[in-house]
Amino acid sequence: MATILKQYHTLQANIYEKVAENSLPFDELLQAQELNHRIGVLETFQILAKTAPLSTDTKVLRQHYQIVDVCIRYLLMDHKFGPALDENGKKKRDTANKALEDIIRDNQKRFSSFKAETQDHYKRCIANCINTVLPMWLQFRDTYIKINLQEA
């Protein structure tokens, strides 16, 4: 995710240059908004992964996971707008949404009775969870507004 985040920051800097020059085409406005949203989400999850406690104390781990879980579940509810789609596009969006829901549900089951075996076990598992959910979320977001990283 760090590579994608870096590419997003580069693309964002290009957009900000256009804004400063008053030359951002109107048709790129939605992409600019989407890019800002994705950067915020990716940075939030980066912080969550980096702050995962090194502990086997279930109470400590549960407190952190509750925050992670809320943020992950929010991914299913976040702003769902973009250009109108044909039937094929709607099917792709529905498929991506279902895949994201399935991954989130699987991770919730995995953490419902989680017991850390070592001090760093939870940190490794939560990073793996995040690195499983976010690529699917990005695919899902692409069904709303596609971000072209070749511009970065």
Question: What do you see in this structure?
Answer:
The chain has helices spanning 2-20, 29-50, 58-74, 87-112, 121-142. It is 70% helix and 0% strand. The longest helix has 26 residues, at 87-112. The chain has 152 residues and is mostly helical. It contains five helices and no strands. The mean pLDDT is 94. The protein is globular. Helix 1 (2-20) packs antiparallel against helix 2, helix 2 packs antiparallel against helix 5 and helix 4 packs antiparallel against helix 5 (121-142).
Task: Summarize this entry quickly.
With 152 residues, the chain is mainly α. 70% of the residues lie in helices and 0% in strands. It is globular, with a radius of gyration of 18 Å.
Strand-helix topology:
Layout: H1 2-20, H2 29-50, H3 58-74, H4 87-112, H5 121-142
Helix pairs in contact: 1-2, 2-5, 3-5, 4-5
Let me know the average pLDDT: 94
* Total DSSP helices: 5
- What percent of residues adopt helix (DSSP H or I)? 55-70%
Which stretches of 5+ consecutive residues score pLDDT under 50? none
Question: What brief labels describe this structure?
Answer:
152 residues
